Amino acid sequence: MEYDAIIIGGGPAGYSTAIRLGQHHKKALMIEANKIGGECLNYGCIPSKAIIELADSLDYLKSLPGVSIDFSIDMKKWVEWKWDMINRLTSGVEKLCKSYGTDIVMGYGKIVNENSVTVNGETFNAKNLVIATGSSPVIIKGAESAYYNREILDIDHIPSTLLVVGGGYIGIELGTAFAKLGSKVTIIEMMPNILPGTDVELSRYVERKLKQLGVEIITGVSLEKMEKGKNYKARLSNQQEIEAEVALVTVGRKPNTQGFGLENLNLEMDGKFIKTDRRKRTSKENIYALGDVSGQPMLAHKAFYEASIVADNIAGINSVVDYRAIPFVIYSDPEISVVGEKTERYANFPLAANGRALGLNASQGVYRMYVDEMGVVKGGAFAAPRSSELISEITLAIEAGLSAEDVGLTIHPHPTLSEGVQEVAEAINGKSLHFKSSR
């Protein structure tokens, strides 16, 4: 049979495209070489947030005045639980895809031409190809024996000392978690500040918390050499030497463009990424690329969104991407969440003025809203507990063209962290209830 689409990759980009095509009553074949759910569900987004949740829970109790706790962590049991949780999730995704008529083949797909793919010695044909092969961690030459995101989340104990190479969002998230779980953590970053590309006014709250946790942060240096013996020994570009029981490398990710016959298509590239237009079409009309392999930012929710665009176009519906309101979240402490654009007109509301935050023993952070000259919401930036759950209100406001006044007039429950969103909206017009701004 000829499929409407063959999808190479079963991660968030691939499986969501399969589901969306099924909702359009289109027949799809999805090929996955490893595990349904891809990097995000199996090795990234889901398990990393699970260990962060464990660490945050312990840190919260330890930080409360008058509370004294003794605890032990059996990481082997935690890892078993983690995989059981992930397998429930991924098996549900697989069943959902099949319920929409998607055929799934496990194996390494190889593109023959723009209409044919071979896998496990069998050739399949389709009107359209969808490339959703995701990304992989960048491996540092000479540091192949180090832990990367997959290995660290399967570790069978809490290391006494942990060296994190890379102070981007992955390194900060996992470094913070292990510091809270009891590791003595050192983070090195080649840029002048941790979380490069993040507003320093936001990242300073994270740096402050890391220092409270006893994390050593070394910026402006790179890794020159790493050796593995009983421990890991690293030499930095400033000739400083660091020894740690475990070394974790988190220096970025690269798109997966090798090993599946992409060279047979002669597609136009955008650097290391596959170039696409606003319909997520490549330089060949019947071939689409989405998710990490098609460009920054590498976010699962961006892939979910792009899947709808791809499926629409394959189904004959003219849809284009609009990236005005894609939220970006760093699951640090506090969480940093950003969406939209910066404008000259903005307002701040301090986390310390939010009653629910104080009840959580959290006071370091800020809510910020950006508006245009008419007061229409254009962006937001939060450093606050659970800001990942709060930023969607700003995302919706941008999509709907709401004004700060609209958000400020929306009744929020009390006491909640979400009240900070209402307060910062009111602050745009100088009418915040629980904080008087000097602006």
Task: Explain the overall architecture.
By secondary structure, the chain is of the alpha/beta class. It folds into 3 domains: 2-137 and 254-314, FAD/NAD(P)-binding domain; 149-251, 3-Layer(bba) Sandwich (FAD/NAD(P)-binding domain), CATH 3.50.50; 328-427, FAD/NAD-linked reductase, C-terminal dimerisation domain (Enolase-like, domain 1, 2-Layer Sandwich). The chain is built from 12 helices and 23 strands. The strands form 6 sheets. Strands 1, 2, 3, 4, 5, 6 and 18 form a 7-stranded mixed sheet that branches. A 5-stranded antiparallel sheet has the order 19-20-23-22-21, sandwiched between helices. A hairpin with a 2-residue loop joins strand 16 and strand 17. Helix 1 (12-23) runs parallel beside helix 4, helix 1 (12-23) packs parallel to helix 8 and helix 3 (45-63) packs across helix 6 (169-181). The longest helix has 25 residues, at 75-99. The radius of gyration is 23 Å and the shape is globular. The termini are far apart. The model has no long low-confidence stretch (mean pLDDT 97).
Assembly type of the chains comes to: single chain
Largest sheet: 7 strands, mixed
What is the helical fraction, as a range of percent? 25-40%
Count, helices: 12
CATH class of the largest domain: Alpha Beta
Give the CATH superfamily of the largest domain: FAD/NAD(P)-binding domain
- CATH architecture field of the largest domain: 3-Layer(bba) Sandwich
State the low-pLDDT regions, or none: none
Q: Name the beta content range.
A: 25-35%
Structural class: alpha/beta
Q: Average pLDDT, to the nearest integer?
A: 97
CATH topology of the largest domain: FAD/NAD(P)-binding domain
Shape: globular
- How many beta-strand elements? 23
Number of domains: 3
Task: Give the radius of gyration.
Answer: 23 Å
> CA-to-CA gap between the ends?
66 Å
